Amino acid sequence: MTSTRHRHLALGIALALPAAVLAGCATGEASPAASSGTSEHDHDHDHDEHEEGGHGTEAATDTPRIALTYDGGIVVLDGTSLEQVADLPVDGFTRLNPAGDERHVIVSAGDAFRVLDLGTWGEPHGNHSHFYTSDPAFTKVEFAANHPGHVVRHAGRTVLFNDGSGLVESFDPHDLADGAPETTTYTTPSPHHGVAVELESGDLLVTDGTEDSRSSVVVLDSGRHEVARTDACPGVHGEAVAADEAVVVGCEDGVVVYAGGELTKIASPDAYGRIGNQAGSDESPVVLGDYKSDPDAELERPTRVSLVDTVSKQITLVDTGASYTFRSLGRGPHGEALVLGTDGALRVIDPASGAVTSTIAVIDAWTEPDDWQAPRPTLFVLDHTAYVTDPATKAVHAVDIESGEVYASATLDVVPNELTGVSGLPE
User: Fold this and answer.
1) How far is 180 from 170, CA to CA, in rounded Å?
2) Distance, C-alpha 380 to centroid of its chain
3) Is the per-residue pLDDT at 32 higher than 80?
4) 364-387 burial, b if ≥16 CB within 10 A, otherwise e?
């Protein structure tokens, strides 16, 4: 069987084809604005350096990298060998998300969204691409935030949600290599723990609510005028985008789907059936979600996951046989639904049928901690590889999703918590 690394290299070559072959602030109002970040160099100078590989060292091929948080910093590893590349000190609890350009990640820490350059990128050049690496480092770009919340990437835009103010900032992540990107902003009527998605059309899907209650999903046009709304989503939380740009937002009693210009509520099979964390794929019309049915539980440990079909508008529940957490969900390269269970196994689910097609033993059995910020095994998927952390043994493993082979493992000097990564491939 072709190895994961060889498949990854083949993807890099495919993406390096000629450009001709490649698919080429007041509340309620949108306004272009410069971000609060600053860049180390002027824009033109940065652009020229970036086109020639910047300060990087040229590599033979693309170099995926992953980042893991721990109490006191962030460790960066080579995504293939799992060898350590960098250890960056960071104070306090941090959260990680890919920035959307396959080079940078967004670090939610303290009162800002900070931009971390993982030091791997590619530049198209005629009928091929050049690849570069450099030392991972925080850039001088950051976005001030009062309680930084969700980071959403879709349609070439990255959207930051500020829970403490309701500020929504959107930008093109590919501009991060040149310094602070130009942003578009919108502010929700009231601050709340929310989420926003910018669509290909420029429309904005955003939640609406307060710190005490939230139950609304609103769609705004490119001028940020309301074009659709539903208030039938109690406890609204989380989002995912499926094939054909169907957006799914979680509720305490089901989900809301935005597709074809319409908002549709899909009720859960149970009176209380909370779906709050989801994983979508462009390869599938089905969104994978968690599923909790006990409204009185302090910490419910469910064994069922939800599959939301955005075409038939139905929710199917699949019992995986093991509990899981909000960091257990992912999607494979062909739309496979992936769930990391507390029995230490990674389950691969056919989203169309709901059948568990394979169960891959990765780590020992574990128990979800009571504190949501405490380290627990975490799943992150990049191309054909599923990365799984094991805080109990300070380990991280790389799993070939299709063959089920755990092809690389590494033991860290720290206890890993959150996990993300980038491919280092050009757009």
Assistant:
1) 12
2) 9
3) no
4) eebebeeeeeebbbbbbbbbbbbb
